[in-house]
Specification:
The complex is a heterodimer. Chain A has ten helices and no strands. Chain A is mainly α. Chain A is globular. The model of chain A has no long low-confidence stretch (mean pLDDT 88). Chain B is an alpha/beta fold. In chain B, helix 3 packs across helix 4, helix 5 packs parallel to helix 6 and helix 8 crosses helix 11. Classes of the chains: A mainly alpha, B alpha/beta.
């Protein structure tokens, strides 16, 4: 656990902060879109958690993950820092989990800040003195879980791809293409399902089904990442 | 006799058809700088990777600080420091953060990390620049910081892979001086990969010479020099000819005599005197301007070993 904290500290210093205030422009812009612009445009409807909010809360953190995760391993290898890290006493598991947790925490944290900021602004400007919250509450929790799971999915896939690519850029390109293929596959599966199966599900039940599918995918990909993230393999690659 | 800190027995490693290391057996005593010499691609870096347990050998075994490299890599990496082929610094982080990271990795408490950072950066004249992003530093400064990082947690053994490779002579000499003073101060054993022979000559108490994965020689630089021949004399002048060379070669104290770039090179047996040979040359009509005596350099030893291996 101590080693995972060390990696989180390192990732916060190196990968996320990138050595200056300019590094905050990107995340502030995204939080601004998620937490200020869109909620003020939608007003009270923003708290209904319809498809548009779901898309924003799922897609933006996932997009951040794809941008960062390729750099986390392939980028370290490119800059020759990974070899030095592997020559130290830190375990492979701590390196991998530290990177995944840091990147997921950063991306998902942005989504959370965006949702909370949106809530505050909608209440301030459209609440008319009556406090309102995201509703229905079970859907709110499901949206949060889906967002987290999609981040873990992107991070785990990013690790697996990074292990097999020479550069961070190559890893990002493959991860982007993989994501598109995943979306097409999801659309294909949804269209292939019997119409009455989907129509029988409520919105909340549909999200719950998506959570189960993502849980399985995450477990498989994270497990494969942990199995493949080995010193000898990394040195040879 | 010092206790051996590294034992290597018949170690081999191949990458597909390439035999990077071929039946290497070696012992490295504690408390010295041990030079591992060889041309590019000789298998030096592979040897360090194997000793750190980062790669598994194809055949043979090795132990470092009493730990098996195949099964106890974690224990080895906990007790050693390494500066590999590249400095491996996080360039977006400051110098003190780079050191702090490795202090955290080795579970050093915060006050100890701060004190050690100050101690090493002050010793290397980098303390005033400790908050700079490392990416803005010169290559020499980065390499000094990487040496400090390798020594940060006070390991008993440090692996350095070509620490001055690609440096200009001034920068290399400066880093060598810093390295020598740090190593002496810390009392650490150093396994130094290098193809810089003057570096090995200045720093190493023992050296091993490797080529194409095979060990060619091992010992103290003086022993290796003695192994390839006796003391040498270089005579600068004019009028040297084949008859003079034949006359010299017939003398019992001469092992070898030959001309190189119009200089006469004589290899002597034991501590023979040069006076009678100079007299012989002068009487035969040679005009002598300068006579230099000396031992074979490590470079000559190295080149001789490479030539012998080629044959």
């Amino acid at each position: 656990m101590n080693d995972i904290w060390t990696m989180l500290w390192k990732e916060a210093k190196d990968l996320l902060w990138q050595g200056g205030w300019r590094a905050l422009i990107g995340p502030l812009l995204l939080v601004g879109i998620m937490g200020v612009y869109l909620p003020l445009q939608f007003g009270l409807a923003w708290l209904d958690l319809s498809v548009i909010e779901l898309f924003v809360v799922l897609w933006i953190p996932y997009f951040v993950i794809t941008a960062f995760m390729g750099d986390a391993i392939a980028g370290e290898r490119e800059r020759h820092t990974l070899e030095t890290l592997l020559a130290s006493r830190i375990s492979e598991r701590a390196i991998l989990l530290g990177k995944v947790i840091a990147t997921v925490g950063y991306a998902w944290g942005m989504a959370l800040v965006g949702l909370l900021l949106g809530l505050v602004l909608v209440n301030l400007f459209h609440g008319h003195g009556n406090p309102v919250f995201y509703h229905p509450f079970d859907v709110f929790l499901e949206v949060l879980a889906l967002s987290l799971l999609s981040c873990v999915l992107g991070a785990s896939a990013g690790v697996l791809i990074s292990l097999r690519t020479a550069t961070a850029r190559q890893a990002q390109q493959i991860l982007s293409i993989g994501t598109l293929l995943l979306i097409f596959a999801a659309i294909f599966v949804l269209r292939a399902l019997p119409a009455n199966f989907l129509s029988a599900l409520s919105y909340s039940q549909f999200l719950l089904l998506a959570i189960v599918v993502l849980c399985v995918l995450d477990a498989v990909l994270l497990g494969l990442s942990l199995l493949n993230f080995r010193r000898s393999r990394l040195m040879l690659s | 006799m010092r206790e051996a800190i590294i034992h290597i027995e018949h170690l081999s490693r191949s990458f597909g058809p390439v035999q990077a290391l071929d039946d290497l057996s070696l012992q490295v005593p504690a408390g010295i700088v041990f030079g591992f010499l060889g041309p590019n691609g000789a298998g030096k870096t592979t040897t360090i990777h194997l000793l750190l347990g980062l790669l598994e050998p194809t055949l043979g075994r090795a132990s470092v600080l009493g730990f098996d490299t195949r099964t106890q890599g974690d224990a080895i990496r906990t007790r050693t420091g390494a500066l590999l082929e590249f400095a491996g610094l996080y360039e977006r982080m400051s110098a003190e953060d780079n050191l702090d990271l490795y202090g955290r990795i080795y579970h050093m408490p915060a006050p100890q990390r701060r004190a050690r950072t100050k101690e090493l950066l002050t010793h290397l004249d980098l303390w005033d620049r400790r908050r700079d992003q490392v990416g803005k530093w010169s290559r020499g400064m980065k390499q000094k910081l990487a040496v400090a990082r390798a020594l940060f947690h006070r390991p008993s053994l440090v692996f350095l892979d070509e620490p001055t490779a690609g440096f200009d002579p001034m920068a290399a000499a400066a880093l060598r001086t810093d390295l020598a003073s740090l190593v002496a101060r810390e009392g650490v054993t150093v396994f130094l990969n290098t193809h810089n022979l003057s570096e090995a000559e200045k720093l190493c108490a023992q050296v091993a010479v490797i080529r194409q994965g095979k060990l060619l020689a091992v010992g103290a630089p003086d022993e290796l020099r003695a192994g390839i021949g006796g003391p040498q004399a270089e005579i600068v002048g004019e009028g040297f000819n084949e008859q003079m060379l034949t006359a010299l070669r017939e003398r019992p104290e001469v092992i070898h005599a030959g001309l190189q770039n119009s200089h006469l090179l004589i290899e002597l047996r034991g501590e023979s005197k040069l006076g009678p040979l100079i007299r012989l040359l002068v009487q035969a009509g040679a005009e002598i301007e300068e006579v230099r005596r000396g031992k074979a350099s490590l470079e000559e030893v190295f080149l001789t070993l490479m030539e012998e291996e080629k044959r």
